[in-house]
Amino acid sequence: MTTAAIFGLLGTELSQAERDFFRSADPWGFILFARNVESPDQLRRLTNDLRDAVGRDAIVTVDQEGGRVQRMRAPHWAEWLPPLDDALRGPEAMRLRYRLIGQELRAVGIDSDCAPTLDIANDATHPFLQNRCLGRTVEDVAARGRAVADGLLEAGVLPIMKHMPGHGRAVADSHHETPVVTTSHEELSRTDFAAFRALNDLPMGMSGHIRFEDIDPMPATASARMIGVIRREIGFDGLLMTDDISMNGLSGSIGERSAASIAAGIDLILHCHGHMHEMEDVVANAGDMTPDAIRRADHALGFRCPPDTVPAADLLAEYRALGGQVEWPAA
Prior knowledge:
Blueprint: E1 3-7, H1 16-25, E2 27-32, H2 40-54, E3 59-62, E4 64-66, E5 69-70, E6 79-80, H3 83-87, H4 91-106, E7 112-113, H5 138-154, E8 158-164, E9 180-181, H6 185-190, H7 192-197, E10 204-207, E11 211-212, H8 224-233, E12 239-241, H9 254-264, E13 269-271, H10 276-286, H11 291-301, H12 312-321, E14 326-327
Parallel strand pairs: 1-2, 1-13, 2-3, 7-8, 8-10, 9-11, 10-12
Antiparallel strand pairs: 4-5, 6-14
């Protein structure tokens, strides 16, 4: 059976201990970070080795938003503006931008991106998130978010929308503490939740470790009531994973966090750091994927399509004609 988890790893190569662990645990997928990235050839070997370890064509994802949050950087890959800066050029420029990003990912065996970020920015949004957003209104975020998802899908890359059901009103960084949102449920439904409702047909989503005081004192990731909001009010029946389970927006041990998230209705635990003892705790407490999680995972995989065949140079020319700015790597 497949463990209800997505795991990271420590370095640029798969160690024998990691290989053995992944073969035994059989996580649904993997996530990569800058510590795992060295060169295109190295990344292709690594993504192949990860899939070999579990004996199937497992999803490999990454945070490649552009700006501060992109794990693959110059000189081998493009350097992008922060999403909020680029989003001002409109949906078509965003579609082209993320189609190009998707091409870069697929070329090294990565077939998922943790984007679009559908959190709505405002003046109080914490700086860790502010310029990673796509706009300041529901309409802008929904239109640009759809364009991001379309561009990735056209490149053969599965999008993961985040941070459900909305992180934009949070004034704290959930990496370090639990953000608390005091906005009324009615107002959240009209605004923050509406951006995700507009894209509720996407295959995958990521929860946020945020506490919505008017709905439930528990952080959304570990709250059955908040997962209910995501499933019923937002209408998302796609594959739902946690944000990194190691972040301090959640309390308790890694095992306790994992068990609480699965009990709340999360499909997959995302563990990013690659520390073996923590991953073992996730396996012990997340358990195997449920029948509903397997159904949603199969549906998500149905969105996979072959890599893009349109030349990057053509897409880049269109993007720049719309005012897009990027430092493109030398051939």
